[in-house]
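Supplementary Methods S3. Complex input for the glutamic acid-bound model.
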Amino acid sequence: MSGLALSNYRRLVIKVGSSLLVDEDDQLNRIWLEKLSDDVADLSQQGHELLIVSSGAIAIGSSVLGINKQRARLEDLQAAAAAGQVQLVHAYQECLRVHEIAAAQVLLTPDDTEDRRRFLNARRTLEKLLERSVIPVINENDTVATIEIRYGDNDRLAARIAQLVMADALILLSDVDGFYTADPGSDEDAKHIAEVTSINSETLAMAGETRSDVGTGGMATKVQAAGIAMHAGCSTIIASGVIPHPLRALNDGGRCTVFRASASPAAARKQWLAGALEVSGELRLDDGAVKALLGGSSLLPVGVVTVSGSFRRGDVVTLRSASGVDIGRGLAEYSDEEAVRLAGLHSDEIETALGYRGRAVMVHRDELVLFDND
Ligand code: GLU
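Predicted complex, serialized as structure tokens:
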């Protein structure tokens, strides 16, 4: 027993691989999903926030449409994904409903996590779902993604989601119970590693080659995903899902590998912001706003006195006090033109000023870093 307890990690992204959810005949393994849903319900009872990244759409859809995955073209797989996704998410919805938990389908393409404006949109939506205790069931939008613009595998997508929502842990459930010094399937001397604290060339060599068949990323993609997550302050846990109650087993100290992040997600985000090279504009704030920021609040339009520079939503802006002191920086929720229109207004005046509903804050507290000016 490794003694790992999930209680140290509040916000969890759980990645479910196709091989767990779908059997050899491409049929959904409903019983397994019911048990996973029991675990999900237990964890949310214990105060965890959960997001699920689930594969399986292409596999299930292939059986619906009678497509042979091995010989299928991209458009066949995309059609399969469309037919399979609806069944996949419906199954989650039904299994979670038994526990009075609502599920929400979220389909993403890489633009949604790589482009900062869309990143902010996706993030706020997921936050709202979590606030309402709804479980997002996330997959790549395979139906419109093309080869050049795919995440390619859900390990990577799950890592991006973990980064997006500042998750404390990313749990990759698959057919292996952790990371080994070599492929345990082909090397009987392969040794299980319980903890990894940094990913280096040796780790990558042990992970081996990336496999490219649909729905199986292999160990290399898991390690790459762990790298993305660790960079964002999120620990990654690789554990076996080939058992009836995988999350319960993990919580009870079952075997796994933890890729342990050294910083917290908030610290990693702030470090990234502080080091961002491109700053596109500046907001000058009144004293009340500066005080509110120091107290941990978001920046509201009412506290903005002047706006300068040229920026779009999601760009980095400098925050300056009325007397010109550089107090920090953050991601603008509005473009410079919108910010000019909103400066000094109360949040309930935003809709009239812009002609659409808009967002309540100018810079969200999770998206800003304050410098130490003492
Ligand atoms: N998005 C694909 C599906 O749902 C799976 C990709 C993967 O498992 O890595 O079928």
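The two ends are 48 Å apart (CA to CA). The first helix runs from residue 18 to 21.
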